[in-house]
Design brief:
By secondary structure, the chain is mostly helical. The chain has helices at 6-11, 15-23, 27-57, 66-94, 101-110, 113-118, 127-152, 158-181. The chain is elongated, with a radius of gyration of 17 Å.
Length: 186
């Protein structure tokens, strides 16, 4: 998969998704070459931001234990990947749509890419800027889930794809909110 094809994947259920489905990398390979390296990015950026200019974002952020926070955040991301792949499979089965566990985990590995990459926005010490980047990443993630479900499940009914997307995205948002709680001041 080419990260440069992400924008096309977010607006189309076409050839990029077909190419991913045909390439069929193993879950272990997906985890080792996509999920693991990119899920390291947000914790590293949180650590860097917290240590170097955390107080520029919100007073009191600079003095927190960013080593622990970033480690917990990283482990939470890995756990979320596992749960979201399994959950996607369960939700599609409930909606009487077929997706393999492999494709469900493919989607769970591809959908958070915009969120992981949006952490690079933390290089700019501006809360408003980062909120905007995060909202754009959330919108792209939702679109990736919809087009991924539509394509990988070989659907022809948009309403069913939207219903599955709503539950998967909503659950993913809940996990994301839980991860964000780890960085809030206590």
């Amino acid at each position: 998969m080419n990260i440069m094809s992400l924008p096309k994947m977010a607006v189309s259920s076409g050839e990029e998704w077909d190419e991913i489905e045909k390439s069929h990398p193993s879950i272990a390979k997906l985890f080792a070459y996509l999920v693991l390296p990119l899920s390291v990015l947000p914790p590293v950026m949180l650590y860097f931001t917290g240590k170097h200019y955390g107080d520029d974002f919100i007073p009191g952020f600079g003095g927190r234990h960013w080593e622990v926070i970033s480690t917990v955040f990283f482990l939470g991301e890995l756990l979320t990947f596992g749960v979201m792949g399994w959950l996607t499979k369960q939700i599609t089965q409930y909606n009487k749509v077929d997706i393999s566990y492999h494709d469900a985990y493919m989607l769970a590995g591809i959908a958070p890419l915009p969120l992981w990459l949006s952490s690079l926005g933390l290089l700019v010490p501006n809360l408003i800027f980062n909120a905007g980047v995060s909202l754009a990443a959330l919108a792209m993630t939702c679109s990736l889930i919809y087009h991924g479900v539509y394509s990988l499940c070989h659907m022809r009914e948009e309403v069913s794809a939207m219903a599955i997307t709503q539950v998967v995205f909503g659950t993913g948002m809940a996990f994301w909110a839980i991860l964000l709680v780890t960085i809030l001041p206590l």
